[in-house]
Amino acid sequence: MHATGGQDDEDGPRRPWTVLAVALAAQILVVLDISVVNTALPTIGHALDIDGGNLQWLVTAYVMMSGGGLLLGGRISDLLSRRGVFLTGLTLFTAASILSGFAGSTGELIAARAVQGLSAALLTPSALSLITTTYAGAQRRAALALWGAVGSLGVAAGVLLGGAVTTWTSWQFIFWINGPIGVIALIVGTRTIAKEQVARPQLTDLDLPGASAVIGGLVALTYALGATATHGWWSAHTVFAMAVSAVLLVAFLTIERRADKPLFPPHVWKLKALVSGTAVMLGITGLLVGSVFLTSIFVQTVLGYSALKTGVAFLPFALAITAGTILARHLLAHAAPRVVAGVGLLITAGAAVLLSIAGPDAGYAVDLLPGLIIMGVGVGMVFVPVSVTSMAGIPASHAGVASGFLMTGHEVGAALGVAVLSAVASTAGSLATADGAADAFSRGFTCAAAIAAVVAAYALWRMPAQRVTGAIGHMHQ
């Protein structure tokens, strides 16, 4: 895929920013809800009597359903009115958020979070495709940079918001707060997003067999990894879930090769920038969300912080991510995207090593804060080049499926990040006790450092080598 030419380079008529504002507001809700429960986990666990090994499902139930359904959501966005799909997804997401707050048991809350995830699978690709088809040239690149910043900053900000809301009100309000925001976004979106005339698709155009296979495969994989903390890596339970995941994912690839109208067109695999960007998106989001999960548990269980104090403890991390995104925007004018992303990932790896040293007698200012700030800068440096380059040159007719593919990396990365780092961490100790959480924290971040180094090598090898001129400008060889 070439980064130059076409819609990506031609500015065209300047569009108002209202569509971007509505799309970003919706995506902020989606991203916040990945991490907003982290600071409330101990409170929710106590209220609903959830043991430490099952707390992660409040995070993974959401992201695994969102990640599994994004390809189908992207396909629906391409076939139907993007406006209609966006508003439908926003309505369902808002309703599911309200229901989450009324959950009275573990099963009810996990089910409501899963519905939230499926709603996000409609909302996210339609929002991103609205941006890529509404704006062109400099406006489009600036909008995509902001989209990337939201993807990283929203995760960190969710921890702060969750801590404040849980302390000042109750854990239910971390979900109920989405209600008024969602309603306002719906009203504004209904009035500002232009209506489209689209041909009525056939049911076969959706490739439901392929969608069912990929959703089932990703859900089974995430479940298998998450269950290792309870059942062990080589238990019959885990091995069976892994086998089911492998069968379903292989079935998905087989269905896609034979389908007349595949969910994911085979030629998309030839779009190097999109494929490499999605892989890096998966890796960095997994590291970010997994790290937030482990750190939230550590500061509350080991350091004894309240939910509010935990949220405030993540404020420097959020500010560092913002600094990293700003730094990346400027660096892209002088260095290739692969270099900016690779350096960011190496910084993230170094920060993970620093955090892994923290022990049961650790202090926040000395042992955690430096690592969190360094990691924040590194993470912020990765999201911008990935978001800007991945969608370059994608035609409007494939904007939905391309958006779905990219954001599948984001959501699946979030699910796998929590599942993998939690599973590895749990081999050293229980996340529910102070001594166990300290040992688990150390092992989890040692694993995170290794993953970051591998993803850095991949980014330097596969991401675009073209340099971006200007703040977020044209791409040149």
UniProtKB/TrEMBL annotation:
Transmembrane helix listed as a keyword: yes
Family annotation (InterPro entries): MFS, MFS_dom, MFS_trans_sf
Chief place where the protein resides: membrane
PROSITE patterns per the UniProt record, alphabetical: MFS
UniProt subcellular location: Cell membrane
Pfam families to which the protein is assigned, alphabetical: MFS_1
Keywords tagged on the record: Cell membrane, Membrane, Transmembrane, Transmembrane helix, Transport
Residues spanning the membrane: 17-35, 55-73, 85-104, 110-131, 143-167, 173-194, 206-226, 232-253, 274-299, 311-332, 339-359, 371-394, 414-434, 440-461
Residue ranges annotated for the Major facilitator superfamily (MFS) profile domain, each copy included: 19-467
Membrane topology term: Multi-pass membrane protein
UniProt KW Transport keyword: yes
PANTHER family: BLR6921 PROTEIN, MAJOR FACILITATOR SUPERFAMILY MULTIDRUG TRANSPORTER MFSC
Name listed for the protein in its UniProt record: MFS transporter
Natural source organism: Nocardioides zeicaulis
